[in-house]
Design a protein that fits this description.
Blueprint: H1 6-17, H2 21-36, H3 38-57, H4 64-75
Amino acid sequence: MAKATKGDEELILHKFRSLSPERKQKVIDFLEFLASGGKAKEWLEFDEWALNLAKERGFDRLTEEDVARIVSDFRSGK
């Protein structure tokens, strides 16, 4: 892999400064994702586990209205 040069860093900074605040945040989020390395893999594994659990329990078929009703029933002690 080629090593970044000072010129590359200046180019990145120049382009970053020209972005809107929303796009700057996306760049920052992406850099954090890249820097996390192994953590990203752990989160993907967790997401897969959670999705499989939801399917096993039938939660993947719930609508937003179903969830709202369940929460409301729980809060009212039903």
